[in-house]
Amino acid sequence: MDASYRAEALEKTRDAHRGVVGFFSNYVPEEWLYACDLIPTRLLGLQEHRCGDGSSLPGFYCSYVRDVYASIEQGLLGYLDAVVLPNTCDSLQGVRDVWAVGVPDTRMYPFLHPVRQAGSREFYVAQLVRLRKAISADFRVDPSPAALARAAEVYNRNRSVLARLHARRLGKRLPFGGADFVALVTAGMILPKEEHNQMLEELERGQDPSAGELLADKHRLMIMGPVCDRLDLLDVIESKGAVIVTDALTNGTRYFLYADLELPCDDVAFARRFERQAVSPTVTTPERWGFVVDQARSFRAEGLIFICPKYWDPHILLWPAVRLRLEAIGIPTLVLEIEHNQSDFSREGNLVEAFLETLQPV
Amino acid sequence: MSSHRALRDVVDQYYGPLRQPAGTAPVAWVSAFAPVEILRAMGLACFYPESYAATCSARGLGREMISVSSQRGLGRDVCSYARIFYGAVWDGLGPLGSLPRPDLLIATNNQCGTIPAWWESLQESYGVPLFTVDYPREQEGLTPETLEYIRLQHRGVVDIARQVSGADLDPDVLARVVGLSRRASDAWSRILELRARPRFQGEVRTMIDALFPIVVLRGTEACAHYYEVLYAEMARKPEGDAVRPRILWYGYPCWFLPGRVILPRVKRGRIVADTYTRWWVFDFQSADVWEGLSRVYGLTYLNRSPAEKVREVEALVSEYDIDAVLIHSNRSCKRVASAENLVLQRLENLGIPSVRFEGDMADPTWHGGGSAEACVSALLEILGN
Questions:
Q1: Which residues of A touch B114 (CB under 8 A)?
Q2: Closest residue, chain A, to B310 (C-alpha)
Q3: Residue range A316-333: average pLDDT?
Q4: Mean pLDDT, range B13-32, rounded to an integer
Q5: Which of A268, B100, B199, B326 has the largest count of CB atoms under 10 Å?
Q6: What was the pLDDT predicted at B203?
Q7: Above 70 in pLDDT, residue A49?
């Protein structure tokens, strides 16, 4: 993802709003931030920056988190007025730990989402109330129910158009490749939502669902993993004679499927949405597999590639389960362990090529 | 009775039920800081995958078991306990051979975020119920909402254990089991106080290996008895010469090393304290059993804030009259590592020399090249040895 483009887009719009709030994970209540007239923006890595020596985080933290944190520490994300840090993984919790020393000038709000367990709804609501109170006090804002309803409408519209575009990938023709689709979703995490909605709707209107490249000679793949903003890796996968027809990525289907916010969008509505969303590895629930298997089957995936950045332990330790679960339904799997700031994916390309050779001929 | 004999009882009591044929008694696989008192009170035997991985590493089996995991897709940057344990799951390697089949899996995130996913994969392999207890990592102590959330989940553990074992929880039995954990912890705490004496004679390895019962058998008479016997023995032990420099080891042991830590090769001076052995001092003082369990497991060392970790190091430096600190930056544990910079800063302010080296708790391959030893030598040079 081009960092300068993001900076430019946000710099252009921030003056018309109360500020820009960076965040990680799909569990942060974006709609509430939007209703406060803040611009919620997903924090993604800056491959051109390269986290290096001097970061306050050890080298065995994942390079994605180190990259983002080093960027904040070095003022490269100067447009941020605040950051919401969830407890998604130990690397992010490590960021929270060193924040006060590393970047004392940028406000940081922790957001401890629960796992899905007894009492988790009440706990999610308590965390939401804590977050709301802190941001309301610091930015002197308390959104009205009408503002919240409007925010829910904008975000729900975004999710529905993404879901409709995603559904077009069910067919025998390819409306867009997997890298393109992940780019579409990711763009909406950075661009103002209305602008993104407009772009998506134009795309939807302008595209003939019966057109597109015929997929007869390509293997249909599913990809799974955390945030994948290295779209060049997806390009490499697709250049080997495959097409990514669906995914279970944080910045893919997990962002928009089952994630609508119900009205009235009070605290409980946010908690209920959390209970419905497709989950990250830090939320333990058997519902994870329903989602993954349903995507793989519905989109007729012939194989699954599990992408995991190094040191992202909660993801990589799901790998044995992924393999068992998918292979039980006849879908072979491949794991690709990568560095977020890796310069070249030719090794991964070779592994994908070998994997595709093991699949049944199309 | 000697502590050696008491330890044999512990070993028998831990492994005995695990060696029974499957179906004899329900077995729960638990993470190191799971609320095992609830499970024990309901008659479940507990097996500790992390402790098993540490044992395998200490017996020199780490490399072989890691190699099995690597071949199946768990790369060398994944937690080494998990990689070693999967060597046991996938190829039956390890001293037990085939593992005791679990009837229930209890994961917690009060030590790291890796355990829940690891346990979820184990569930996929064994097809048994899994309960993940969520202990939110608050920076400023536990809020009333967090305490209530933990309490509700502990009740959830009771429900799932009942489904598996068919036994109900007797509150009196639970109170007795918690009392046994408290006895063990109190005795262990007194042992660590003895260790702070300037002329105390005790090797680091002895102290670290003595943790085994409180890790795997909390809440039993055998465990409490072991520490009471050990305390009595250590209190009677003749004192030696006072030594300088006195060094604090910060972080995990290296299980594969004969001494469990890198021992300074000097005529004088030694490691007299470590942070790891303190992790198993629990505060079971609460009058309400459920609140006590919530506090103990909600505030494990690894679930505390970096500020608290810094305060603890300060306290140890003072209590043990420490001259220098060795920081083992364990690649397999991000929770400890995030406080290391703050600890280093604080030590600098206190004028205490310190060095940090990168290593691993169980994977010996990260310990090659002598860089860790070089760090220790550098520290000793600073101290004028």
A1: 90, 313-314, 317
A2: A97
A3: 94
A4: 88
A5: B326
A6: 87
A7: no
Q: What is the mean pLDDT of residues A169-179?
A: 85
Identify the residue whose tokens are 């639970």. Answer: B174
pLDDT at B360 over 70: yes
Query: Which residues neighbour B14 within 8 Å (Cβ) at sequence distance 6 or greater?
Result: B213, B216, B217
- The distance between the two most distant Cα atoms of chain A, rounded to a whole number of Å, is 61
pLDDT for B266 equals: 60
Please tell me the pTM assigned to this model. 0.94
Average pLDDT over residues B87-104: 90
Contacts of B153 in chain A (CB under 8 A): 117-119
Name the nearest CA neighbour of B212 among B203, B202, B222, B201: B222
Q: Could you count the other beta carbons within 10 Å of the beta carbon of residue A112?
A: 24
Question: Mind listing the pLDDT tens digit for each residue in B317-348?
Answer: 999 999 999 999 999 999 999 899 899 999 99
**pLDDT value at residue A15:** 86
User: How many CB atoms within 10 Å of residue A204?
Assistant: 15
Identity of residue A10:
L
- Is B329 part of the contact surface with chain A (CB cutoff 8 Å)? yes
pLDDT at A53: 52
Q: Does A351 touch chain B (CB under 8 A)?
A: no
In what side-by-side order are the strands of the sheet with A219-224?
Answer: A242-248, A219-224, A303-309, A333-338
Q: Which residues pair with A219 in a beta bridge?
A: A242
Please report residues of B whose CB lies closer than 8 A to that of A311: 77, 334
Tell me which residue in A97, A314, A335 faces B338 most closely, judged by beta carbons: A97
What is the torsional sign of CA B240, B245, B250, B255? Answer: negative
Tell me how crowded residue B193 is: count the other CB atoms within 10 A of its CB.
Answer: 13
Chain B neighbors of A93, CB-CB under 8 A: 113, 137, 334-335, 338
Q: Token digits for B365?
A: 């391959």
Q: Which of residues 307-326 of A touch B (CB under 8 A)?
A: 310-311, 313-321, 323-325
Tell me the DSSP string of B339-357. Answer: THHHHHHHHHHHT--EEEE
Q: Rounded distance, CA A273 to CA A276, Å? A: 5
Question: For position A3, what pLDDT does the model report?
Answer: 61
Q: B212-244: b or e for each residue (b if 16 or more CB lie within 10 Å)?
A: bbbbbbbbbebbbbbbbbbbeebeeeeeeeebe
Q: Does the beta carbon of B86 lie under 8 angstroms from any beta carbon of chain A?
A: yes
For residues B83 and B75, give the distance between their C-alpha atoms in angstroms, rounded to a whole number. 8
CA dihedral angle for residue A63, residue A66, residue A68, residue A72, rounded to 10 degrees: -160
CA of residue A101 relative to chain centroid, distance: 28
Query: What are the residues whose beta carbons fall under 8 Å from the beta carbon of B378, sequence distance 6 or more?
Result: B355
Are B215 and B48 a contacting pair, CB within 8 Å? yes
Cα angle B156, B159, B161 (rounded to 5 degrees) comes to 110
What size, in residues, is chain B? Answer: 385
- Residue A347 confidence (pLDDT) above 90: yes
In chain B, residues with a C-beta closer than 8 Å to the C-beta of A288 are 120
B125 and chain A in contact, CB less than 8 A: yes
Mutual angle of helices A346-358 and A231-238, in 10-degree steps:
40
* Section B114-135 average pLDDT: 95
